[in-house]
Design goal:
The complex is a heterodimer of chains A (265) and B (89). Chain A has 265 residues and is α/β, with parallel strands linked by helices. Chain A has one domain: P-loop containing nucleotide triphosphate hydrolases (Rossmann fold). Chain A is 39% helix and 16% strand. Chain A has twelve helices and eight strands. The radius of gyration of chain B is 21 Å and the shape is elongated. The chains are: A alpha/beta (265), B alpha+beta (89). The interface between A and B is medium-sized, with 17 and 14 residues.
Chain lengths: 265, 89
């Protein structure tokens, strides 16, 4: 059987699928896992940029599907982690250039040689999403604590269930604990109440995400900020470790200093 | 500044509560694929059918869509009009 294929999806755009895919791929590879991340957002390729690998692309997913290169030739090896690869999306084609069955075949070919295949789904519920979900053993639903994102997440959950996939967990992204405390943002429990799905993790809003994307240097590589730490926790949970959920109570000064000194995970 | 705002703010539901309630309402309709308009049509027709046979309090009729994890449920609450008791002698 080999690799676990996990599709990261959301319905709504802009909630952090690509950032999540990049950080989880890196975090899993840092734990010694052999990882391929596949950018299934054909025509709007971005995972390469977030991972800082855009200069190394020669071939892409559509080249593989259309037989212009072998699968291995299209895979870009990460410059920091030797067991991490990216299969980039085509930039000049559209989502209909690939069929769900071809995604399944590509993943079949990769499974024996890897531990994880992470598929970054495009937004929406059309062909691109169907391509991304077709090979999945599991799905990670990314949402933010906002009405529109949660609504779309619910729709996606329904579609994934309808596709006969049962294993899915929720990643709540961009939580602002200060706003929740002021009663101006849906809380983690509110979102879980509404969606009735298992929680995989919560990533606090963190401006360092933008900085890390600017540099093409995923946040988890530097584990000292909260979002990076949260992604590390999620990676551990994916590996079956029982990591307690991060507390979003106001952080004490002592804990803050500890964290910055990297004394606690 | 914020505490002044909070102090004089009229006590209303928080935006968090509003978001949750709106979401729950939206999702009930999304999941069952029954729009508020369709619900109104159902209500009108149910009233028509029932009142053809039994006198009911039309204004008191409530049709609601509720849901749990696995099931959506259409509930109709139809108050009957009080009728004079029938004497049985």
């Amino acid at each position: 059987m080999g690799a676990r294929v996990i599709t990261i999806t959301s319905g709504k755009g802009g909630v952090g699928k690509t950032t999540a895919t990049a950080n989880l791929s890196v975090a899993l590879a840092m734990r010694g896992q052999r990882v391929v991340s596949i950018d299934a957002d054909i025509g709007l390729r971005n995972l390469d940029v977030v991972m800082g690998l855009e200069n190394r692309i020669v071939y892409d997913l559509v080249d593989v599907v259309e037989g212009r290169c072998r699968l291995r030739q299209a895979m870009v090896r990460d410059k920091r982690l030797s067991e991490l690869y990216l299969l980039p999306a085509a930039q000049t084609r559209d989502k209909n250039s690939v069929e769900p069955e071809q995604m399944v075949q590509i993943c079949q070919e990769l499974r024996p040689d890897f531990d994880f295949i992470l598929v970054d789904s495009p937004a929406g519920i059309e062909q691109g999403f169907r391509n991304a979900i077709a090979p999945a053993d599991e799905a990670i639903i990314v949402t933010t604590p906002e009405v529109s994102a949660v609504r779309d997440a619910d729709r996606i959950i329904g579609l994934i269930e309808a596709a006969g996939k049962e294993t899915m967990r929720l990643l709540i992204n961009r939580l602002r604990p200060d706003m929740v405390r002021r009663e101006d943002m849906l809380s983690i429990d509110d979102v879980l109440d509404v969606l009735a799905i298992d929680l995989l993790g919560v990533i606090p809003e963190d401006e360092q995400i933008i900085v890390s994307t600017n540099r093409g240097h995923p946040l988890v590589l530097d584990g000292r900020n909260r979002a990076g730490q949260a992604y590390n926790n999620v990676a551990s949970r994916i590996l079956g470790e029982d990591v307690p959920f991060m507390s979003f109570e106001r952080e004490s000064l002592v804990n803050r200093v500890k964290r910055l000194l990297n004394l606690e995970r | 500044m914020r505490f002044l705002n909070d102090l004089f703010k009229p006590k209303s539901t928080s935006s968090r509560q509003a978001a949750k309630e709106r979401l729950q309402f939206i999702l009930v309709h999304d999941r069952a694929q029954i729009s508020p308009q369709l619900l109104q049509t159902l209500k009108d027709e149910i009233i028509a059918v029932i009142s053809a046979h039994v006198p009911i309090d039309r204004d008191g009729v409530e049709i609601t869509l509720t849901q749990s994890r696995y099931q959506s449920r259409l509930q109709a609450d139809i108050p009957l009009l009080r009728r004079p008791r029938q004497r049985t002698t």
